[in-house]
Amino acid sequence: MSFTIDAQTVTSGRPPLLTSARWRIFAIVMVGVAVMSTARIISDNGDLTSSGTFGVALRTAAPIALAGLSGLIAERSGTINIGLEGMMVMGTIFAGWWGWEYGPWMALLGGIIGGMLGGLLMSVATTTFGVNHIVAGVAINLIAPGVARFMASELFVGVQGGSVTSSPGNSGKMGSFTVPFLSGGDLFGWETPDILGWFEDTGWFMVADAAGFMKGMTTAVTWDVLLTIGLFFGMAYFLWHTPLGLRLRFSGERPSAAASLGVSVHKMRYIGMAISGGLAGMGGAVLVLFANRYQENQVAGRGFLGLATMIFGNWMPAGTAAGAGLFGYAQGITLRTNPADVGERPVPCGGNRTRGDRDLHGVPPLDRRRRHSDRVLAGRLLGLLRGRVAEQPARLRHAVRGHADRRLGRGPTAQTARRGRHTVVQGDAVGARP
Amino acid sequence: MFERIWRASIAPLFAAFVAIVISSIALLISGNNPVNAFVEMWKTIDSTAAVVDIINTAVPLYISGVAVAIGFKMNLFNIGSNGQYILAALVAGWAGAEVSLPPLLHVPFVIVVAMTVGGSWALIAGILNVTRNVNVVVSTIMLNYIGIGLSAFLLQQYFRDSESGGLVAQTKVMPESARIPALDPIFEFFGFNFGERVDLLGFLPIAILLGVAYHVLLNRSLFGYELKLSGMNADAAQSAGVNPKRMVLVTLFMSGAVAGMIGLPFLLADPNFYKYGDAFPVTLGFTGLGLALLGRNSPIGVAAAAIVWATIEVATRRLGSLGIPPEIGRILQGSFLLAAVIAYEVVRRRNDAAAAEAAAVATRDDRSPPPTTVNAPIGVTS
């Protein structure tokens, strides 16, 4: 079996220009824009690709993206973070509290701290006591809404505008930023021309849609969303270009090997879960900043969506961001067409709530993910099923050599996972590739 | 016997202690007197009516716990019981109200419909797993959303009771023949009178039967043996001739089928419902996960967990009127769960260490091969 794998990777070599990954992505993007543009023209619904829609999409994608990034860090450091939904809930309650008391920036900080507490709590269970990751995560998910509700009843009840299910509202709003010249942002008090807006208004095939997308990404982007985008680059740099990041991934890939080389696996996993919890909590805070207040069940399954985007994105930051964008766009278009629906998808996860007609909105389309599912899921998920993320030697090989990271979830891993794992992988490692 | 019970209950007792300490601290921080709060909780549950209430609350929780436990036994995490039971309750509520059958057939018909729907919904994840190797945790979680969205759509478009008026979306009320009467008359026959307006709902015997069936399946059947074997060591099970794909499919179907029954106590036996609608409880599936973890997947354990859970729920109901936040119940439940999960793991490790020690001593003494200790996975009592 290992021979098949080797043969496959060896023969792949350097692919012809037009089938290389970069060209394929470019082609997919162009086809996507063309399809969207055609859909806009046929349906005569400008909102499909308007800058407003993309702006909202970016806003709604940010919490999911943060959740995905949180799951990514956790898994890279060797913990399956099913509890990240609960950590987001912790983030929302802390953000609602600090945002009400001290303002939007402290809301962000509070969310990070709240999520971090959840992450560390889970790490105590999984790392120190060795509890099954999924079990501990489920427990966190059940606890967090209870803690949030208790805190809300202590903090917000009896305050003007507050209740058990809602904070009184943040004191102040997070500022935003519009790029000058491209989207007409101010430059030292001078209103620059809105070039993309002009293109968008022309309604030209493909051009207007691309302009709408660009303008949506560059108009009135709030600082917390900008920070989210920055964090994606920051985390990618951290994980793949710093010593600590290497140790973190090492602890996730091969804990015993890491320990034998003097890396404290427990410490690394605590750090990983602290960062993971912090990111998830920040996702909750972004939700609070969007709604301008804490609301019960605000998270509404976004933690799980984040987990899905991470898998969709092949355990890589860029892919995760793309997956979150997909969900964000689905929610954005829902918000634009149903303004009354404030992005609240009532998904029962702790807390009692009644279900209404709103259930239908915002359920994201899943068909696009299906194509990836076999390839992407296969490698990791058998391990996930058995609670054995750590033991995936194919990934270690890549990590140590420091190249071809994009293939991590694919190629050898997927193959070996499908065919009975370790024994095969060992043979594969011996007959290493050139 | 006594020692066995003691060893099984030490971890939960310790967890309960931790939970009480944590919630006491939370109460102290919020400026309440913990002793006072616990005394009030005790007063609330210290009546026949409260006990009946606890049992009624515990029945759907128990079914929910068993549903998840079936999968957990095989290390197959069916996180999707929530979507499964909502969809099942909707379809069963609709189908049950549409047909007219004699009472002895009507109730089983509704149960079979609910189990089929729940099982089929879970089976989607199973099929994805065996054909495309999609992870069960992720696919069941995501199927929750699809199931909930689908049920909202179906209710709105097709299954809605058109005569009940425009605003409330709900299915038709079940006909008389599909309702299970309360158990009060039976108890009155033996001289127990619960009092006015206190009904012991009639789904309890079915839940007990379910528990017995689960026990028999697990401990007295070939399938149960294969199930536990696959959970303990999947590779060993496979080399012993257990077909892993078949196990995944059958287990998920059974787990989903039982999950489909979670909503039935409300549909068939609760006078406040007899229908699927807006007020229908929608988070029982997630609670079941916690109960299966607490009860370590054993029929008795899950029952005990469900009763503890229901007791906390009932006990904290009246706290609000005394100025104590009733949310303390959630803290109590949550910290109990986490502490229990950790305590089980610690106890298991200690047992493993003791077994290893004994094995080492044995080899030193008579050079006989050490007894192999199975590194039991979560939830498998050693």
How many strands, which pairing sense, and closed or not: the largest β-sheet of chain A? 2 strands, antiparallel
Shape of chain A: globular
Strand order of the largest sheet of chain A: 1-4
Instruction: Give me the Rg of chain B, rounded.
Output: 23 Å
The number of helices of chain B is 15
- Fraction of residues of chain B in helices? 55-70%
Describe this structure in words.
The complex is a heterodimer of chains A (434) and B (382). Chain A has 434 residues and is mainly α. Helices cover 66% and strands 2% of the residues of chain A. In chain A, the strands form 2 sheets. Chain A has a two-stranded antiparallel sheet. By secondary structure, chain B is mainly alpha-helical. Helix content of chain B is 69%, strand content 0%. The longest helix of chain B has 39 residues. The mean pLDDT of chain B is 87. Classes of the chains: A mainly alpha (434), B mainly alpha (382). At the A-B interface, helix 5, helix 6, helix 13 and helix 15 of A face helix 6, helix 13 and helix 15 of B.
Summarize the helices and strands and which ones pair or pack.
The complex is a heterodimer of chains A (434) and B (382).
Chain A: H1 2-12, H2 21-43, H3 51-76, H4 84-102, H5 104-128, H6 133-155, E1 176-177, E2 186-187, E3 190-191, H7 195-202, H8 207-218, E4 221-222, H9 223-241, H10 243-253, H11 255-260, H12 265-291, H13 302-312, H14 317-337, H15 367-386, H16 393-401, H17 411-418, H18 422-430
Antiparallel strand pairs in A: 1-4, 2-3
Helix pairs in contact in A: 1-17, 1-18, 3-8, 3-9, 3-12, 3-13, 3-14, 4-5, 4-6, 4-12, 4-13, 5-6, 5-12, 7-8, 9-10, 10-12, 10-16, 13-14, 15-17
Chain B: H1 2-29, H2 34-45, H3 48-72, H4 81-98, H5 103-132, H6 136-157, H7 184-189, H8 204-220, H9 222-232, H10 234-239, H11 244-260, H12 264-269, H13 284-294, H14 299-315, H15 328-366
Helix pairs in contact in B: 1-15, 2-14, 3-8, 3-11, 3-13, 3-14, 4-5, 4-6, 4-11, 4-13, 5-6, 5-11, 8-9, 13-14, 14-15
